[in-house]
Every structure is written in structure tokens, then in C-alpha cells.
Amino acid sequence: MNMNASTPRVEMRGICKAFPGVLALDNVNLTLMPGEVHALLGENGAGKSTLIKILTGASTKDSGEILLEGKPLSFQTTGEAQALGISTVYQEVNLIPAMSVTKNLTLEKTVGRFGMISWRKAREMAREKLRRLKLDIDIEQAVGSYSVAVQQLVAIARALDDDTRVLVLDEPTASLDAQETAALFDIIRDLKSRGIAVVFITHFLDQVYEISDRISVLRNGNLVGTGLAKDITRNELISMMIGRELGEVEATFAAKSNATKGEPVLVAEGLGRKRTLKPFNLTLRAGEAVGLSGLLGSGRTELTKILFGAIRHDSGTLSVGGKSVGRSSPRYSINSGIAFCPEDRKAEGLVGELSIRENIVMSMQAKRGWLSRVPRRDQERLAEEMIKALAIATPNADKPVGQLSGGNQQKVVLARALASQPSILLLDEPTRGIDVGAHAEIITLIRELCQKGLALLVASSELDEIIASSDRVAVLRDREKIGEIEGADINREKIIQMIAGDDGH
Amino acid sequence: MVTERKNIDETWLNRLKGSRAIWPLLALAVILIVDGFISPNFYDIRIVEGRLFGNLIDILYRATPTAIVALGMAVVIGTKGIDLSVGSTIAIAGAIIAWRIHAGDSHFAILLMALGAGIACGVWNGFLVAGLGIQPIIATLILMVSGRGIGMLINLFYGGTDPSFESALLQGLSTGHIWLIPTRIIVGLAIFAALWLVLRKTALGLFIEAVGGNAAASSLAGVNARIIIFVAYIVCGLLAACAGVILTADTHTSDPVSVALYIELDAILAVVIGGGSLAGGRIYLGMTVIGALVIQALTTSILISGLPPEYNLIIKALVVVFVLLLQSKNVRALFSKKAARPSP
Amino acid sequence: MNSKYLPLAATIAVFLALFLIGGSLYRNFLSTLVLGNILADNSFIIIAAIGATFVILSGGIDLSIGSMIGFVGVCMAVLDSLGWHPMATAALMIVFGILFGALQGLIIDFCEIQPFIVTLAGLFLLRGACFMVTLDSVPIHHEFVDVYNSMKIHLPGRGWLRSSAIVMLISLFLGIIIAHFTRFGTNVYAIGGDKESARLMGVNIRKTTVMIYALGGFYSALAGVVYALYTSSGYPLAGSTLELSAIAAVVLGGTLLTGGVGMVAGTLFGGMILGLISTLIIFNGSLNSAWIMISSGILLFAFIVLHRFLVSSFNVKGT
Fold first, then answer.
1. Does ipTM top 0.85?
2. Which residues on chain B place their C-beta less than 8 Å from a C-beta of chain A?
3. C282 belongs to a structural domain
4. pLDDT in tens, C8-35
5. Residue C107's CATH number
6. In Å, how far from its chain's centre is CA B150?
7. For A479-505, how does the pLDDT look when each residue is reduced to its tens digit (9 = 90+)?
8. Cα distances (angstroms) measured from residue A330 to each of A179, A185, A220, A272
9. Which CATH class is domain B57-335?
10. Is the dihedral of CA A413, A455, A42, A444 positive or negative?
11. In whole angstroms, what is the distance from residue A284 CA to residue A269 CA?
């Protein structure tokens, strides 16, 4: 390995990037050496994608600099970055499924003259590219007709040129099975031996240790640390990703009050869905908060959505308030007293154009039906109450929700859930992307709701949040619920150990 | 720091939002004022044969059918959809009127049948969009292409030789007057009031705007997005049929080929001038009516100014382009030095 | 079979079925004479539809086609009365069509407005312009028109391939070359298939969009020229709602209205299906022209639903 030799392939220094209301990257440094596999880890919203987009020209930085082999770089488009030898395989958007493999591999690459395409040359080029990855497929078929694994390899083949210097792979193994992953790793090792710097983004810890030389961890837009893979234990790594030190408010709650448990209000037995989540058992009781802990991709969101009916289960039984649920759906769940606050507020939580008042009233209104409209005066009173109770920072209730900051948006989602007067509340990442003050407020709120007799489920990527807010913790790993811990057992070490599995270093 | 900048943006965003309602009103005012200069007795309103006459009344009178169609369109656009088939719906409703009058049905029943035909058209479109999940432009294109043919076919039911008819009830609704006021204006106002009540005094308006703004989020909040979209297309079909009754009774004949030609475009234009975004999420009923009035006022101005009526389309087109350019972020950035305005 | 070709196969099957139905119902239907006439009568719709195919393949729509045909027609006629040679006018109008289309494309991409609305404004503008040029039907007297209309190639049997049909077949050939053998053509499919992916793969979206609508403008202007020469006149209402026929021809030709999938050659058959339907109904004599619209609507419905369920087979990404 020539890792300690020469200059770094790429140096990103002091990269900052802000979106309205969020600081996505705060002074992040990243160094890539030639011929190394560099794993980039972090939960959703930690800033991985933003950092990669800046490196590959898909997004621009607010400040900071990027050096390619010691020379400062500035590019505006992915095309310019590719010309300099920096290529990316994005997790989702990467190929045109309806077009043939040949067309996908040669799109906007020069073949033929005068804007004409010589399909003979294009096919040669396509075969050449596939040969590099030892992939033998019919190149005339539509890309969409192949398995995701093959599509992934085609995308890599497209990204690789003779002069590729940096290759970024964003969650390349997310939908591959073990064998396919092994084949991909052989290819990555081969690329490495050719001196290409590979950035590998994943949430599978086993794979991180199997393939990478160095690891960098991001959390909330900050670089938590960088180190050699062999020097970082699995527990340390998990701790870096999800184990923020407890804040004051959280610490006070971390000492558990031994509240008496109420009646079971939701019972799931063998509930699951193929390729989404293995069957699990879970009981939620009135007055008890259950935490859902696990890494990104472990099935936290899926479990919550299955309970709510947003993802339909295909095995097991679910009963709510003693009544068995047949075909679950969000509407049915809301009517039977379940409320849900989704992780992705912008896409699934709020209607940005509508006012705070309208967003808060919506679930409650849906429960009452369209004919019995909540009178305007009641709407206003409810909105005012919620704004006061949850300390939503806004001049008035008629402001469009889209203009609020992340924390306040989260509170509106919560307000809407509470306004429907649920007996069960499912929260997915209630504190994602919000500042420290609001964070503590929301944890306090969760505890208060619980004391009022609500049954809570809190899915979170932040360990401290789980520890602070839960009476019981269910731990997930690789789309499977692997166990529960209760009372005094709820602590960082125990949870990290469970997530890491028995083979932890 | 971030929050502070946000607050400043909010105040001037709000001002911009407030001004959004001003623009169409201003446009209408400017057109009417210019008309006053062109024709000194433009604002005169007199009573002839027991009803009001005058340019202003005329604008209201002629704008009514378009405004009614545009109100339905506003509802559909609120769900992030579009209905291209309103012209066809009008043709079908008109053909049914002529056909059943020849068959000798009671005129009140015929009125209900015409409206029922509109509902049926809405059900069809709703089925394609909400049921089969076909893009609205494509789905409603089917009825747009075939609807006028269906109207012609209905005319054939009674030989198709003489589709003209007389009906005291229907023509009363269209060209008659109550006291001094043309009935169709009263009908238009009644429809407006009824729609307003249905949208704003039930939760339907909120649900439609929620579904149009973010269908995924509204579903998770418990709103049945499919049924809401379905209802929106039915409302649009029903209102188109109302306009169909007025237009058909006005001409005393069913003419599926040319009745209300391009009305879908005028209706969409009225919604857009009224500040509605084709991206859905908001319904502005009042502003949509203003939009329809702007279009008609333009047409009337061209008539009284002595310009050939052929200029009408060109001017309409230029108005559309102007309104669109005004709404475009990139164009505003081009003309504003403070180009960097963060989108919320 | 590759499911990509299924819509095209369905189109050809429908075309053959209609042709055979015609043959079984009427003597002399199965002849090159009828075929040649259908080709000539529908040549301008098919030419315009070829342009619309590119627009629709890219996921857009062009409503200005009919008005463009009308506008080109009246200009041809009026300039003819001023002594211009039809070929000179044709060249001028085609350049105008390209520029007008390019402008529409630029507004669509730069202002981020739906193509539907922009080309709707184009529809109004050009139709209004027609009325400003002339309000009457104006004949084209130039002797070139007679020369043009008398040019034809003898087909086996009693049929003729007339000049309009020849122009149409040449434009079809050109369209196939552009769609399948140029980088631009591949980019059109890429944008229609997945605009964001295409952008990330390095396709210049703005340049391609402008070119797509310019090409659409070229084809509709050419359709206008063919229409004017074929009818030897210009009429300001000519071509009204032809954009609908063109779009219908594209969809019946197996191109997905959502973009990304389809073939230019299919549009020929789509246009021919529309032509066959009207010919059949005219042959029948007792049927009203209403049936033309209704049967086009029914076929459109069938194809759209077919496409709707085919799309899922391409939609592999995401869960």
C-alpha cells in the first residue's frame, strides 16, 4: 500500500454548507489517499450526502476548499468533476431504467462524429467498460430489466474511466445479497490496487471493517472523527455515530421514575413484511415509553410504519385496544387512536403551503370526517393552545408551515398528532435536525405525555434520546428486532453491545 | 443568525404574498380605466326592457360561463390536477338538453339530466386519475378528444336534423333576468356561494388543499386522498355542466363541435391569473372569478377600442406569458439584484 | 419479447386489424390505392406527430402544433399573393418554426414552467397571429403548387405515392435517424426516462430541451407547408385541434405520454390508425363523423391504460 506515500489524492478543508434553517456541514475536513478505501459513516441527515455532492460537483459549498493532488479545485457541475477524474455512483438516481445498457454506459460519452452515434463503437465501449468489472450481460437489454445488483455494477462501470482518480460509492450494497456484495468487494479491491481512492458510504458495520482502510464519521454536520479501521473498535464506532453525551435535561430523565405500567394498548405478534422487516413481537402499554434503537437501515422506520399501517404487514397479527386489526391503514389507525409523526417532515409530515393552524387541525379533522368541520374559532383556540403548550416560535397561527424552522416544524407535526387525541403515539426521529434547546424541550414533552397515560414508541438514532425518554428499549439490527431491555439495564454500553452483536471487537 | 435572516425574509415574503391578490385586481382596474378613456360613456348603465344594460354588466354577463368553469378548474388544480375535458362536458350537457327536449321530457328533469351528465363526466375523469393513477393531463385528454363526438352522437338520437329548441326554464336561467339583474349572474353568484360554503364550511377545502400540497403527508395524516381527488373532478364536471346549460340555452341549439371551444384554456388561464399555482395546494375562488373577469374585460376592451377582435387571442397570449414570467423565480432573479432569495 | 416493443406491436396489430376489417367489409379496400390515399391525406398530421414524438419522449407536450400549421398556411397563401415563390416562403416558415419552438423550449426550461402552459400560450399567440394575417381563406395560385401536387410515384397495383406522402416518409426517415443515431436523440430518451439521472449523467438539460422544442417547431412548420401545398390554400382556422390528433397519433404509436419509451416509427402507424378510422367511417357512409372522435377516444383510452400497466415493468428503482 502506498498510503503513507506522497500527497493525498483529495483534501477537503473547512467545508461549510447551510440550507435554510439548517447548517448541513460545519467546518468538515476529509482527506482521501490514493489506493485507500475510505468509509464515510453517519445517520440520516448527518451530512454525508451533502459532503459527497460537494466533492462531486452536484452541489456547491458555502466556504472551504478542495484540493486535488495539492491543487485547488473549483467546479460547478458533475461533468467538470468527472473530467477531473472524480466519479460517483449515487444511491438512488443513477441510471435510466428504460434505456439499454449500452445507451446508459455511453450516454454523453463521445462515440462517433458530428453528434452522430456509431452504435458499433458504442457497443465496443460498453463491453470494454463491463469487462473491467468482469460483468457479462446482454448489453441490448433495458437496464431496468436487470436485478438491482447488476444495475449497481453497470452504474459503477459507467463511472469508471481509465483516468478515474476518485470513486464515490453511496450505499452500493443497500440492496445486494451476501454473494453480490462479495463480488462487489472484489471489484473494489481491484480498483484500490489500481490506486483509485474509493469513498464507501454504508450503514453495514461488518462491511466497513471488511473493506475499508480508514473511517470518517459525521454527525449533525460535524466530523466526529477519522481513524484507521483497525484502530477503532465496533463499540467505539457505534458510539461515535449515535452516542452523543447526555445533555442536562436528558440526564435528569435518564434516572428512571418507576412509573407503574398500564394496560397493554397495542400488541403485535409475529408482525412483519417480506424484505422489509422480519416478524417481531411488541407490546405498548399506557403510560410507558418504548424506545426503538438501531443503526440506520436496521428497520426502525419500517417497524413504526408497519404499526401505523403506512406499510402493510404481510404476516402476524396486530391488535389495538383489544381489537384485532385486519387490513391496517393510516386512516384506520388514526380512527382507532394511533398517531404517527414521520421522520421526513418535509416529504411525509407537513403540507408546507398550509398554515400552522390548518396543519394542526388536519388529523383531528380527518378523524371527524369532512362534513363536521371543526369551527374556525375552535381551530384557532386549539392552534393557540398547541403553540403555547409546545412553545412553537411563530408570530401567529396562520403562518405557512414551510416557513418555520426545523424544530418548530417538528413541534407542529407533534401538535397535529396530539390534536387527534391519540392513546398511542408513534414518533420516528422526533428530534432530527433540530437545535439543542428544542431537543431538550421535546424530550421533556415526551416524558410528560407518558405520565399523562399515553403509550409511546420513540424511534431514534440518538442513543441519549432513547436512554432519556424510554422505560423500555427494543433494539433492532439488520431489519430484525433482536431484543428488549428494561429499567436499570438501559444504558449506553448495553445498547451498543446489542447493536454491535456478539462478535463485537 | 440564521433565524434572524429568516425573519426578514418572512416579512417581505408576506408582503409579496399580500401583493399577489393585488395584481389581478390592479390589472382589472387598469383595463377598466383605459376603457374609460377609449370610450367616454363606458361606465354608463341603463335600463332597457326591464333589465340592466351597459359595458360593465356586459363583462359580468359574458364572463359568467367561463367563471363557473374556472371555479371547477380551480378545485381540480387545487389537487395538483387539471381537467382538459370541460369543453367536452359542456358539449355533452348541451346535446342531452336538445335531445331530451325533443323527446318531450319535463324541462326541470332535463336540467337535472344535464347536470347529471356533468357529474358522470367527472366520475369518469376521477376514476382515471384517482382510480387508475393516470396523470391528470393524459387522463382528461381522453374525454377531451372524444367528448364532442359523444355530443354529436347524442344529437343523432333524434335524427340530428334540427338541434334547436325553446325552453322557458333554461333560457330563463341563461338569458333572462330577475328584477333588473340578468339571471345568469345570479346563478353564477349562487354557484360561487354554494361552492364557497362546501369548501370552506366543511373540511373539503382543507382536505383538497392538503392533498394538492402534499399527498403523502395528507394520507399519513388520515386524509383519504383518492376520494378527495375523485370529488374534485366531480365538482369540476358538475360546474362545467352548469356552464353548459347557460351556453346551450343562450344559443338555443346544441352545437357540440364549436360550443365553448378553448374554454378549458380560458378557465385554466383564469385560475392562473387569479394567482393559483398549477403545482396545486391552494384554491382561490374569489381571485379565480377576478381572473375570468380580467379575460372578459380584455376581450370587451378590444371590441370597444375598435381593434379587430382577432387581436383578442394575441393579447391573451401575451398576458399569459407576462403572468408566467412574473411568477418565475429565475426571471425575477434576472431582474432583481437581490437574486439570492432562499426558497422556504 | 422485450416489453419495450409491446406497445409498438400492439399498434401494428391494431393497424393490421383495422385494415383487414376494412378489407372484409368493402371491396377494393385492401388496395394500394386506399393505402396511398390514407398516406397522403394524413401526411401533415403524421409529420407534425413526428415532432410531437420527440417532445413527448422527453416527457413534455406541445399544444402549439395546430396553430403553427394554420399560421404557416396563411403566411404561405398571403406571401404567395405578394409574389413569393412557395419554396422561399416554405424555407422562411420553417426557420420561423424552429425559432418559435426554441423560444418555447427556452421558456419551459429557464422559467421552470410546465410545457403544457407555455405551449398553450404558443397556441393562442399563433392562432391570433393567423387572424392578424388574414381573416379569409386565401388560395395559393403559384404554378409550383400544381407541379408539387402532380408529382407522384406509381405503387404496385393502382395506387400512387403522392408528393405529400413522399415528404412525410422522408421526414419520418430523418426523425428515425435523429432519434436513434444521434447523441441528441439518446439524450431525449434519457431526459424523458429520468430527468434527474440524466442531469447527473452529464446531459445538458437546457440545451437539449431547447433543441427538442425547436425540432417540434420544425416538424409542425413543415406540416403546415405540406398542408398548405396539399390544399392549395391558407385558412386562419386551419389546423384547429390538430395538436390533439398529433398527440393521439403519438400515443397510439406506442409512445408513453410520461416520456422515455417509444419509437418514432410507431408514430407513422399511430397516424395511419387515425387515418384508417376516418376512412372506414367515410366508406361506411351512414356513420357520422362523431364516430371518428369517439373511436379515437376509445383507442386512446385502451393505449393509455395499457401503458399505465406497462410502466410498472420499467419502474424498477425505488420500492
1. no
2. 2-3, 6, 10, 13, 201-204, 206-207, 209-210, 213-214, 216-224, 281-282, 342-344
3. yes
4. 888 899 899 988 988 888 888 888 888 8
5. 1.10.3470
6. 22
7. 889 989 887 788 888 888 888 875 444
8. 37, 41, 31, 17
9. mainly alpha
10. positive
11. 12
